[in-house]
Write the structure tokens for this entry.
Amino acid sequence: MPLMPPPVTLADAAGVYEKERLGENANKSARNTFNNIKRRLETSLGPLDSISLGAWSSMHGTGLFALLDDPINGALWAGPPFPSDMWNGINAERNPDSPYVSPIIGDSRLVRFASHTKDAGGPTGWGDMRMVFLQYSSDPIVFYEPASVFRAPEWMKEPAAVDVSPDMKFMPVVTQFQLAVDMALANSAPDGHGHAYYGPDYVRPWVAVTDPDNWSEADSARLAAHCDGGFHQGCGD
């Protein structure tokens, strides 16, 4: 699963700094965009939906004080990159007996996690706000840990998830090189694995967040089939 070895040259360090600077600019832009939209609408934002860097940026746009001041109705974030502060903070609060790659937070009334093999538990049992993270256990962009150059990532300390090889063992430096290769290939994985988020996998988490009127499991199954358009293809018209 996840990212690059630490920088070893000044050029590498400069490149990492530039990526972080651009990422911070994107986060500031996201905050400004959300604030402007809310001012124009003069109401709370409805459910949000974004993937990868979009998820990371939109989480910055809905930080703690923004949520306390004017809460969103809910959010579906897919493939949140590992530096995401909100994702890391929520994951740190997982129930001790729940897996790192598929955590359970409290009584699941505020935050739930979904994957290719697990939906978000449907539209019942929620509190006033609904947040769902759609993440695959084999996604290196989600589960990279910078310290993996020296010590095993958290997910390697647990039984291997369904789409992670049980033969993968931790070796200092070597494991991070393996994770770097996984990062480079993350978007070319089969749908439903790595960072290749699969159209049908969005359907039930989105239903859990939005709770559409008169919606049934048959409707979810029909929409999921409609969104199964092939490799890296989403829903048709």
Q: What stands out?
A: The first helix runs from residue 10 to 41. Residues 106 and 204 are 21 Å apart (CA to CA). Confidence is low (pLDDT under 50) at residues 1-23. DSSP finds eight helices and four strands in the chain.
